[in-house]
Amino acid sequence: MMCLGNEPAGHRGCIYLLLLCVTYSSLCLQVQCCRQSTEIVSAARMPYRVKVSAGKRYAWCACGHSKKQPYCDGAHRIKAPSISPLRFTPEKDRMVMLCACKETKNAPYCDGSHFKVIFQDLVKSVKGIFK
């Protein structure tokens, strides 16, 4: 099997899964194509306020696919293999704001980039109304 080459931007390669499913009356064979993302996705529009402990190692999700935001759950291995989590160890116990929009220039900490993301979403919504 091969890909048709008309993949959307930000995707690469295909992994074909051959699924064998048994129904009540028949046997069916299915082929599915799963695409891997090479782009970062926003997990949320607002940062996560979390308490971190001094000396403890954390893995901040950099791809946005983790179900345990803002921390990595390994989802990037399948959904975004070219994007690795950012590992960090705080020097003291404190409350921090960890980026959720994944646009920060000060990863893993929020730098306010989500305001730009929210504004861009708003502009898209307004433009959509007047089309």
UniProtKB/TrEMBL annotation:
Cellular component aspect of the GO annotation: mitochondrion
Signal sequence, start to end: 1-28
Residues annotated as domain Iron-binding zinc finger CDGSH type: 45-82, 83-120
Superkingdom per UniProt: Eukaryota
Keywords: 2Fe-2S, Iron, Iron-sulfur, Metal-binding, Signal
Name of a matching Pfam family: zf-CDGSH
Cofactor(s) recorded in Swiss-Prot or TrEMBL: [2Fe-2S] cluster
GO molecular function: 2 iron, 2 sulfur cluster binding; metal ion binding
Keyword Nuclease annotated: no
The keyword Transmembrane is annotated on this UniProt entry: no
InterPro entries: CISD, FeS-contain_CDGSH-typ, MitoNEET_CISD
PANTHER family recorded: CDGSH IRON SULFUR DOMAIN PROTEIN HOMOLOG, CDGSH IRON-SULFUR DOMAIN-CONTAINING PROTEIN 3, MITOCHONDRIAL
Name of the molecule in the record: Iron-binding zinc finger CDGSH type domain-containing protein
Organism (species): Dicentrarchus labrax
